[in-house]
Design a protein that fits this description.
single chain; 281 residues; mainly alpha; globular
Length: 281
């Protein structure tokens, strides 16, 4: 029971760290999504590279082509997510990005030959119905932002399947390091034509992006290492709640009852899928 309490605390810290990162990205909207990906990635890259060198873990890994694919897909997903925050309320964007398990399931059927049970399709349908409620009853929801965040979720779904293919053949820190390296290079190159020099405290906020991102990933990993998936995975959606609160109190975003219903439907569908899959694994 003590270990479970520790895992719950770790997941709460992870969700809060990611929510802070989401809020900072929204706050730093004057910078291009490319530049935000660059600073988010390089901050974490410095930490992961240092840890890999300290523990003498080979950086290049074993499944290199899969590691590169994971890094590219991750960088594109992150770029689309950051870009969508210029068009969508931050809580809505984070919620819709969590449609990724549905895309992961579809990729797993195609690539890994896995089967999706009928009840899982029902849960996925509930989540997608939540998206329709969000868009259908919120005329102010940007179609551009919606398209970006769904594409971000699609690439994130691909990431899950690639990581599954990598398995335990590479250290988790190596996987993250590839992602951060590719994100740094891609974000840096794409932002060269539209670079905005940070001023004063902006340097601090941009530096914190990488730190809170790393903290989020670290404590999420720790939580899954000491508790079962069905106990911990649903707590990942605390990030949505924390982010909605940040959007409401920091950015004064207004969430209608229909918006909150749509968010709840998406979270319910995906959480039920996690619980069902864990119990029938």
């Amino acid at each position: 029971m003590k270990e479970l309490h520790k895992a719950i605390l770790f997941m709460m810290l992870s969700a809060f760290a990611f929510a802070i990162m989401n809020g900072l990205v929204k706050y730093l909207a004057d910078f291009s999504a490319y530049q935000l990906v660059f600073f988010r990635s390089i901050g974490t890259l410095l930490i992961t590279s240092s840890l890999l060198m300290y523990h003498k873990i080979p950086m290049l890994g074993n499944k290199r082509w899969l590691l590169i694919l994971r890094g590219v897909a991750g960088a594109i997903s992150l770029l689309l997510f950051f870009a969508s925050l210029k068009f969508l309320p931050v809580g809505t964007a984070v919620t819709l990005r969590y449609l990724s398990p549905i895309f992961a399931a579809i990729f797993a059927v195609i690539w890994l030959k896995e089967r999706i049970k009928p009840l899982q399709w029902l849960f996925f349908l509930l989540a997608f119905a939540g998206v329709l409620v969000l868009k259908g009853f919120d005329d102010g929801l940007s179609l551009i932002g919606l398209s970006m965040i769904i594409l971000s979720a699609l690439f994130m779904g691909l990431i899950f399947v690639v990581i599954s293919k990598i398995g335990k053949q590479d250290h988790p820190m190596v996987v993250v390091n590839y992602f951060m390296f590719i994100g740094t290079v891609l974000g840096g190159l794409l932002s060269m034509g539209n670079w905005k020099n940070p001023i004063g405290v902006e340097w601090i906020w941009l530096g914190i992006l990488g730190i809170v991102g790393f903290v989020g990933q670290l404590y999420m990993t720790k939580a899954f290492q000491i508790a079962s998936t069905n106990q911990i995975a649903p707590l990942k959606y605390l990030e949505v709640i924390f982010t909605v609160m940040i959007g409401a109190f920091w950015f004064l975003e207004i969430y209608t009852w229909w918006s909150l219903l749509g968010i709840l439907m998406v979270m319910a569908g995906l959480t039920l899928n996690i619980l069902y899959k864990s119990r029938n694994a």
